[in-house]
Amino acid sequence: GLSFQGETLAEEARANDASQPRYLVPGLYTADPSAHVFEGKLYIYPSHDIETTVEPDDDGAHFDMQDYHVFSMDSVDGEVIDHGIALDVKDVPWADRQLWAPDCAMKKGKYYLYFPAKDKNDIFRIGVATSERPEGPFKAQPHPIAGSYSIDPAVFRDTDDSYYMYFGGIMGGQLQRYRDNKSTERGVLPADTEPAICSKVVRLSEDMLEFAEEPRDAVILDASGIPLEAGDEHRRFFEAAWVHQFNGKYYFSYSTGGTHKICYATGDSPYGPFTYQGVILTPVVGWTTHHSICEFNGDWLLFHHDSVPSGGITSLRSMKVTKLVHNRDGTIQMIQGSVG
Ligand code: FUB
InterPro entries this protein is in (predicted)? Predict the structure, then answer.
């Protein structure tokens, strides 16, 4: 009847309105979407979630991903093209399992896919694979990046064409096992009143295949200039770093892990320090939250994921896109996640 038709039309209107979240790939579980504009199109580099018999544990063993697909779109409400398998764990000589959140960068017409995986000793490292095309296929380097550790690489191209990688994630991401870029005996989290563990930031080498220096801490300060404390679980960094630039400022955004928020902090240098500003995305359905931010055809977009389409299964996520708005004062308007 009429009301049914009314609902259908309302749903269609919603599907065509980019200010409402849009699930991008109904047929495949995808997460941690890193989006970039390459060759005038949107390219998305997500994790590829799969059903697994691996038992869930606190280290995230059930996030047992084995390959990456790359997606592209001509417009934010246009068709999403699945370019198929861009890299498979069996073609990465050093990697054993768990292809977690990747990112891609372009330099001089070449494409570099950065990805975390556990090596044969169950230690997360970050690898790089190269291609002539943004959609791949990518060919992995024989070894992980020397000096790399932990997870979630995100590569930011600065206005002077230097490239910086942000990386790290605590708990299952193993970042707590390191101090001063060295592995410690076991991973101990700092006491609640000690400074929080920071995301790492490192400039990449000219050839994009190595670190050009020792990774540094991307420190997040509170409004009075004091580093956030480890016990400040609603604001401190957990994983999923991303950096974008707006009006000359560097915006460092990240997940708070167990409090399930995407927050952001701003600074004047790609190295930070960054001053905490607020929440970009409130909690979504599923334990993890992970995003990217990019500008395309004059719109700022937030790519993220949730577990709504899988009925709430944390390791079966679906990526979505919604518009993001910077206010005139440089703050970002908070976006409501799928919880509440
Ligand atoms: O997708 C696997 C891991 O879950 C990512 O690397 C984290 O950021 C979290 O989203």
Answer: Glyco_hydro_43, Glyco_hydro_beta-prop_sf, Glycosyl_Hydrlase_43_Enz
What tens digit of pLDDT does each residue of 78-108 get?
Answer: 999 999 999 999 999 999 999 999 999 999 9
- Residue 49 in contact with residue 68, Cβ under 8 Å? no
Q: Does ligand 1 lie within 6 Å of residue 290's CB atom?
A: yes
| Phi-psi category of residue 31: left, alpha or beta, with phi > 0 → left and psi -120 to 50 → alpha | beta
| Annotated catalytic residue within 12, 32, 207, 229 | 32
- Beta pairing class for 199-203 and 163-167: antiparallel
| Model-wide pTM > 0.90 | yes
Q: Is the ipTM of this complex over 0.95?
A: yes
Residue type, 251: Y
How far does the centroid of ligand 1 lie from the alpha carbon of residue 70, in Å?
17
Q: Which of 212, 109, 220 is nearest to 162 (CA)?
A: 212
Interval 159-204: pLDDT, tens = 999 999 999 999 999 999 999 999 997 788 999 999 999 999 999 9
Of residues 135, 217, 239, 306, which has the active-site annotation? Answer: 239
